[in-house]
Amino acid sequence: MFWNKRVVIGDGERGLVYRNRRLERVLGAGVYRYFDPFGRIQVNVLGIAKPEYAGNDTDTLIGALGERLDEYFVLADLRTDEVGLVLKNGKLEDVLFPGTRKLYWRGPVKIEIERVMLNSGLEVRDDIAKRLRQLGVLSRIAAVADVPAEFAGLVFVDGKLATVLDPGSYAFWNFQKNVVIDAVDLRVQALEVSGQELLTRDKVSLRVNLAANLRVTDPVAARTKVAKYSDYVYRELQYGLRKAVSAKTLDELLGDKASLDGDIFGYVRGKADEFGIEVLSVGVKDVILPGEMREILNGVVQAEKSAQANVIRRREEANAARSLLNTAKLIEDSPVLMRLKELEALEKVVEKIDKLTVFGGLDGVLKQLVNIKQ
């Protein structure tokens, strides 16, 4: 009849029955008939393929159904210090923010709500982090960090250091807290100080390039006690270089650069240790002089080398003269040695003559060409 209302609810549906716009009951799958001559009954048929209740009257449903709520819904009512993990058929599918109140239909999809207390720790469990990463929502609800090998991770919660992380992958709930993860490099790092204009003790202007190797031994001190430790070490290298150069003359610098390295190293190491930084080595790469000073030094070096060459030449000449004098004395005392010397001279002369005619035979050569003084 016209006054009878027939309602069909399918397996994947639920019905909300309102009488005089007030919730009366929830209908499961089936066929229902209502006698409604005055049109006071309204039935809203809702699909439950997606178990999340999509209406805006969640609080109204909770109050109207009271103890019967668990027959039709799963209630997720989280405190402000809780995170809700929504499991559908045993698999994590969603995360509820703290303070959330939400209804899920009981039906073909089994819904479970797992509560995580934020007060017990902000770190996300590995299995939960892996699943949320698969869903593509981890970075939106958690602070994520991958700490590489030879690094240390510092976790700051609301500006305060909370923990130090070893290499690995981590995630921390970012609800109601500001979580920042800073990775500090523990590897050996090279630092160069280039083009420093300095004055020596004897007022000579020069430019020096310096190189240093360092590493972080205490990541907490290096991160919290100084704004940027590399800038700090750079400045201390500048100060140490200026102090060491100003204490030496140009000749001392050029003659012993190793002592300059040692002075700078001793100065910087003492300054860096208190900030958790170990300076491994310091070395002067280049000492660059102005053009005029280079010309002067080149002249000095040239004069020194020329003087050394003259000394060596005079010494060799004296040795040669001394040798000739000794030879002359031997010849004076020995006519036979003199004869041998004359024959050596004759041999050298003959080597340069293309044709030689000798008269008188061998006696003419021995007696007339070369005479031995009696």
Assign an overall shape. Answer: rod-shaped
The profile of the biggest β sheet is: 3 strands, antiparallel
**Helical/strand content category:** alpha+beta
The number of strands is: 18
Estimated radius of gyration:
51 Å
**What portion of the residues fall into strands of 2 or more residues?**
25-35%
The strand order across the widest sheet is: 3-2-5
Task: Give the N-terminus to C-terminus distance in angstroms.
Answer: 175 Å
Number of helices, counting only DSSP H or I runs of 4 residues or more? 11
Q: What is the ordering of alpha helices and beta strands? A: EEEEEHHEEEEEHHEEEEEEEHHHHEHHH
| Poorly predicted sequence stretches spanning 5 or more consecutive residues | none
Helical coverage, percent range:
25-40%
Question: What integer is the average pLDDT?
Answer: 84
Overview features:
34% strand, 3-stranded antiparallel β-sheet, 374 residues, 18 strands, single chain
What does this structure look like?
The protein is of the alpha+beta class. The chain has eleven helices and 18 strands. It has helices at 58-65, 69-72, 126-135, 138-141, 219-224, 229-246, 250-255, 257-272, 291-333, 335-351, 361-369; strands at residues 4-9, 13-19, 22-27, 30-35, 41-47, 73-77, 82-88, 91-96, 101-105, 111-117, 142-147, 151-157, 160-165, 168-173, 179-185, 189-199, 205-216, 277-288. The strands form seven sheets. The protein has a three-stranded antiparallel β-sheet, with helices on one face. Helix 6 runs antiparallel to helix 8 (257-272) and helix 9 (291-333) crosses helix 10 (335-351). The longest helix is centred in the last third of the chain and has 43 residues, at 291-333.
